[in-house]
Amino acid sequence: MRMFGEPPPPPGFFDRLKQGLAKQGGLSDSLVGLFTRKKLDAATLAELEEALIRADLGAAQAKAIAAAIARSRYEADISGTELRVLLAEEIARLLAPVARPLVPDDSKKPFVVLVAGVNGAGKTTTIGKMAKRLISGGAKVTLAAGDTFRAAAIEQLGIWSKRTGAQFVAGKQGGDAAGLAFTAFEQARASGSDVLLIDTAGRLQNKAGLMAELEKIARVLGKLDPTAPHAVLLVLDATTGQNAISQVEAFTQSVPLTGLVMTKLDGTAKGGILVALAARFGLPVHYLGVGEGEDDLQAFDAAAFARALTGAET
Fold it and tell me: What is the pTM of this model?
């Protein structure tokens, strides 16, 4: 396997991530007033655990992280700056196993990526940004407008194809999504595309009919290649917090997820949900999104994210 060239993050990307995660109510904000004592005592550890829970890390992970900090510095003098650094190191350690890039296998041509998620998570925009990254790295990409329910989604993906130079396959609004995916696979194979990115309709995890359609798309792709889709990514809106866990659980029941993309980290998201997801599912986190621009999707970096989440200095 080889990975198409990964461009470096643009200047300021992680600064913007840090600013987004530091907004009112985030972990970094909670840490500002945490220390009324110099020593890391039982009361301070309890406050720390509560701050971690409020930041969406989940009770189990909050307890584990607080315990890890206590093992090294309990009843010792510690500054707020030192605490941020220790927290960042511990969170980075937990996230490191899931910080894995999306690596198209060049023995699969095209490498088929099915992209799913609930309404409003940012699937179509994410696909467009992924196409730009892959094409910038030397890949030939085809985009398939599998969200046949919304004319706006088809149009939006078409705009991204023109912007990035990707090939584009679309059908009529209301058409059969599985049939469109099948056609796109055939055309991508015939044209020699390296990667096929398939958009899908936004679906709530409690809508059985729409989830069944997703299963059908995956099943139809398998008729052309028994190993397809080669990757199934779930796009999650970071502002949904703990609800992201139920989304992963529901989609996993329909299709075998291979990775996650977290969007909207520049909004009101607290960010800690990534830690909870990593602990519970162990799915690779491929990308983070912090805006609408072409370069606002970047490969997930566990250490940089942990520093942004805690407000630790680089």
Answer: 0.91
